[in-house]
């Protein structure tokens, strides 16, 4: 137990904490969820979210508060803005460990649930990235775990306490990302309670959690309404109803979109699903935790699939129950003395990752259609080394006869590869999605009276790296469309004629600075005066132009 605990803690710190600040900050998501908290700290306004000084009503404020607290503690840097996501993943893993240890197959299965969760590619990717989904998923997980503890508790006082916690965590989830924090528990718990034959409890359970959720969420909900009465109309109608139901919703995708996302996101554990299914037999289906995990996974997954608007991050709340089912299924599978399905799945994984390594080397050598992932060859060598080491440990897992060692080797196999991903971001990603180094190289040219103009794509990075919240937008506001159309903000959106007039008024001073995607600037420059300085960071990257 002691060695297992040390190993899982070491796994978490190695993958999620130590390398957090290595990768460059990526647009648009990481700069968005860094800049809004930064502006809160600068302005002192902790009620109304602003991005680039404009009202930004897509999310409630708790996620921004958490990021702001991290920035206060660790500074304005990549480590600070990603730390809340990483800690949320670690806390979620701890809750799964405690839940499975208490109600399933003991400490070993609990460790397996935590290890499987932390090494799922989607959990790892989101947990080391600055978005709100990891923190939101943590609150949903905490609520669901609290409910199950209440469901299994025989003492009325303790049961009441767990139900209150369940409601409070749902309120915190709502405070982070909205009404989906209530939808996921309802969709999971109602069929679970009916399956358990305790349907009468559906009329008694909700009231205490509802009171707890209101106590958590209501104060800010009232404050934002008094400050910005239109917030709830926009947040409820545009961000929830239209995104879920409208055919022209933001990020529209097909119903089956999340199936390949789940298959890829749950790697390396996806290939073991036949073993898990064999382990969860008819006897185990009578177990409350197995039933709870199935309901918690299936019904939210179907709900997210039914939504017209989809992103990869949306199904993160489905991964905690998947890890639970993986742990108890594999534990019972090996207890039955089986190995064949596990070995077959593991061997299939070895073949796939070796093919991927070969394909990467081939593309890097031949420059397939002019595409090479890496300019620096050491990155390619590191990637291939990580993949081959992963394959080697999986082979050792297949050859091992003792099932505990098989699982340990299999879980440990991708750790080196996952660790090095922090250092091997493809060059094209850096060119297209990481303008920070380019912007900072020109920071000496930015003065307090510099007029900053940006197109919609890099504007969040311009705000973050130059510590400004007064950047003009050119020829479109993108996600800032709502905020820029308030009466006091309309002047912040410029067309080319307005920008040309602004440049002529300040010609030759270098005060007017345009930062945009290279392709867009190529279309605009014939309508703009000659610049006094221009730096183009590649034909498909960014430009820094002063007039």
Task: Describe this protein with a few key phrases.
mainly alpha; 6-stranded mixed beta sheet; two-stranded antiparallel sheet; 25 helices; 63% helix
What does this structure look like?
The chain has 547 residues and is mainly α. It has three domains: 2-21 and 77-335, no CATH class; 340-424; 433-546. The protein contains 25 helices and eight strands. The chain has helices spanning 2-17, 29-43, 62-74, 78-103, 107-119, 121-127, 133-152, 156-177, 180-195, 207-227, 231-245, 258-265, 273-279, 288-306, 319-335, 340-366, 377-399, 403-412, 415-420, 427-433, 436-440, 459-466, 481-484, 496-505, 518-524, and strands at residues 50-51, 54-55, 451-454, 472-474, 493-494, 512-517, 533-537, 542-546. The strands form two sheets. Strands 5-4-3-6-8-7 form a six-stranded mixed β-sheet. A hairpin with a 4-residue loop joins β7 (533-537) and β8 (542-546). It is globular and about 80 Å long. The chain starts with a helix and ends with a strand. The model has no long low-confidence stretch (mean pLDDT 91).
Number of helices: 25
Helix percentage range? 55-70%
Structural class: mainly alpha
Q: Which runs of at least 5 residues are low in confidence (pLDDT < 50)?
A: none
Q: How many structurally independent domains?
A: 3
Write the layout of secondary structure elements.
Blueprint lengths: L1 H16 L11 H15 L6 E2 L2 E2 L6 H13 L3 H26 L3 H13 L1 H7 L5 H20 L3 H22 L2 H16 L11 H21 L3 H15 L12 H8 L7 H7 L8 H19 L12 H17 L4 H27 L10 H23 L3 H10 L2 H6 L6 H7 L2 H5 L10 E4 L4 H8 L5 E3 L6 H4 L8 E2 L1 H10 L6 E6 H7 L8 E5 L4 E5 L1
Parallel strand pairs: 3-4, 3-6, 4-5
Antiparallel strand pairs: 1-2, 6-8, 7-8
